[in-house]
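queue> pop job 88
queue> type: inverse folding (structure -> sequence)
queue> payload:
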């Protein structure tokens, strides 16, 4: 997956289109991400011993990875991501818009 934890992304499809947020968690097997402040749902939680609060809790739900684009830290635009190998053989991600390394 080309988007990693702590990347800043822009939601490009769905009910939260246009929102920006940081990736909190990546679920690689299901090709989904959890983005701060996007795709908020209300979940009914039952009171248990370790639970901090019962009732209706609002939290983020996973988003399909194809519905977000990485915001390039250099050019600050949503961009497609590619991979390239450096001279020392290390594989890095790069922004296809400005050709800068995104690591």
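queue> result:
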């Amino acid at each position: 997956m080309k988007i990693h934890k702590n990347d800043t992304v822009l939601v490009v499809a769905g009910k939260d289109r246009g929102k920006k947020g940081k990736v909190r968690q990546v679920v690689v097997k299901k090709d989904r991400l959890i983005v701060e402040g996007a795709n908020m749902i209300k979940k009914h939680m039952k009171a248990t011993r370790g639970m901090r609060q019962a009732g209706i809790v609002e939290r983020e739900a996973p988003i399909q990875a194809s519905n977000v684009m990485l915001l390039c830290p250099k050019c600050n635009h949503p961009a497609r991501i590619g991979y390239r190998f450096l001279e020392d053989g290390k594989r890095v991600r790069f922004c296809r818009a400005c050709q800068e390394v995104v690591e």
